[in-house]
């Protein structure tokens, strides 16, 4: 009996430690969701805003849910309540299954998202930039070119096919936001001061980097969830039936 009590104490301790990590993972997930939403807002005119807001909101909600489930797990451990342990294990397992399903869906849609970005950047640069009624596109392109250090769709040469260039006096081949160092007239005849990478690829890399962060956190949480279910089931089996 002493060995059983010792084993239960070890399991309770491990499950409590696990729930601390689980809470931390929940906070991290919420933080990443907020970060993704704020980052995507900078380029919302160039991306499917709804998709990114939905993804960010799911991360924020998932983080909050993980923290709540962690609380249920702690209560189950302290009270040594088998039904709470079962509820805890079930909820953790459901989140794990939803994460796997969401990951598969995101992977399946990755090419579609990338193609939408390329089309949106091309349209914004060719048709919308500099137009009085399309200021949000102008601001998004300027911000992207400066922050992502890029110019044009695939290169600065794309600007010569744009409505902005055709209406200009042709003294500048690209907007000043293409300049590595922005000064008045910086885009006139000084190619060494112009970013060479296209914004379509730069924005795709930006999105992929955010997806990699989300994916990495998802894998980490999934591993924690599996450990949590194992510990909870072991503790469930160790608690005497008089605790029911």
From TrEMBL:
Gene Ontology cellular-component annotations: plasma membrane
UniProt xrefs under InterPro entries: Tetraspanin/Peripherin (IPR018499), Tetraspanin_animals (IPR000301), Tetraspanin_EC2_sf (IPR008952)
Membrane topology according to the record: Multi-pass membrane protein
Swiss-Prot/TrEMBL keywords: Disulfide bond, Membrane, Transmembrane, Transmembrane helix
Pfam families in UniProt: Tetraspanin
Coiled coil: none
Compartment list: Membrane
Disulphides: 150-179
Segments crossing the lipid bilayer: 12-36, 56-78, 85-108, 212-236
Family from the record: Belongs to the tetraspanin (TM4SF) family.
Protein name: Tetraspanin
Protein's organism: Pocillopora damicornis
